[in-house]
């Protein structure tokens, strides 16, 4: 099978949920660097979501850039953060356990580097029946439905438990992701990890997202976060993936401190 550059192919439209294994293998081998467009939105079905995630290729135009130096910095920063924030983490865990029924941690499958699924950790900030509450809210409230469709977030979210607002506003709910970093599933700096239902929103730029590890903080976090549009989020992730550097990561880490302390763009 000739490579795509012999035919000057610029774009490809792919139905991720129906693509076969042989077709996917051929795409990865001969795909070259052309743009990829997703033909259909993804179903929320777990099996279909896993199929879609496994179908995400490594994009030729944005190869994996996580080197030994970056990984070493990630591990060192994660260990220091674990030492510094362990009292806060213990306090948060105890408060959740004492004030709300359900598990302390919220676990969710997210898309990692090269499209690999991993279990992303957070302190639980919502009621255990949050999914049912969301379905009911979106069915009854057009404004909430429009806000959710735009950003996959709600500013006035009735699903959040007592301490949840504080944890989310200060981003302390994301501290358990330190363990994701130590496990090699995430980085300190990178795009925020997305769920399979968000793949379609990245369109042809999903390869940029998959070329790096998702991060606890990132360019989008220090650029307004929830005060910006989802389109801006994708643009930030694309820019970061294509210009990633150790110096850039250090700058983003430094900018994260005032953003978190001031609660800028948090939700």
Descriptive overview:
The protein is mainly α and 267 residues long. It has a domain of 167 residues. Helices cover 46% and strands 10% of the residues. It has eleven helices and six strands. The strands form three sheets. A two-stranded parallel sheet has the order 1-2. It has a two-stranded antiparallel sheet with strand order 3-4. A two-stranded parallel sheet has the order 5-6. The protein starts with 10 loop residues before the first strand and ends in a 5-residue tail after the last helix.
Task: Set out the fold topology.
Layout: E1 11-14, H1 21-30, E2 35-38, H2 46-54, H3 68-99, E3 105-111, E4 117-123, H4 130-140, H5 142-151, H6 164-169, H7 177-182, E5 187-189, H8 199-202, H9 206-210, E6 215-217, H10 230-243, H11 246-262
Parallel strand pairs: 1-2, 5-6
Antiparallel strand pairs: 3-4
Short characterization:
By secondary structure, the chain is mainly alpha-helical. 46% of the residues lie in helices and 10% in strands.
Helix content: 40-55%
Mind describing the biggest β-sheet?
Answer: 2 strands, parallel
Low-confidence stretches: 1-7, 13-46, 59-66
Strand-residue proportion: 5-15%
| Overall pLDDT level | 80
Give the number of DSSP strands: 6
Question: Which overall shape is indicated by the principal axes computed on the Cα atoms?
Answer: globular
Number of helices: 11
Biggest sheet, spatial arrangement of strands:
1-2
Give the N-to-C terminal Cα separation. Answer: 49 Å
- Structural class designation: mainly alpha
Order of helices and strands: EHEHHEEHHHHEHHEHH
Rg over alpha carbons: 19 Å
